[in-house]
Amino acid sequence: MFRNLNTLFTRNFLRKHQIKVLHQLNDVEVLDELVQTYQYLTGALRRINSSVSSQILFLMGFYFSSLTLQVLSIVQHIIHFKSIIYIIWGICAVLIKEVVKLWILLTIADNCQQEEDKIKKILYKIVDYNKGLQLRTKINGFATQLFHDKIELSAAGFFRLDLTVLVSILSAVVTYCAILYQSDPNINSMQQIYGFEQTP
Question: Which pTM does this prediction carry?
């Protein structure tokens, strides 16, 4: 949605010599329409974020615990039940499905925030190409509003939703699995992995 708005900003102000302005409006009227569209989109995004951010926080916790348990299950099946390969492949398929769902959710949130950030860059280009005083005043007012009014999708305010969350979750899953596997008193991990006894 913000990508379309960025395209409209660019088309109407930076590439005006290539196409006609919609409905023969002047630059200030077009900017007013685009600002209203931007405010509508950011308002909708804020409402979406406020209504689902706590569910997203719960979902991130669920994905973290689910991925941890699935990786532990894969490790246990590889070590103890080497002949049951179809169970391992089934768990791997579920694990991949969970990671892909998490990646899709975080990619959408990240792309939305990146497109919203591009609007600021486009506004500065518009100021450079258009020298009208009324248009520059409107753009400066809108740019000031953008500076103080940053859109951020988050999980109940705890962390921003972007692709770095996926890396953090996957690294935490690996760390927890290593700790849980090594602290299991029923197995001698050094003997299982390296073939020699663990010294006390």
Answer: 0.68
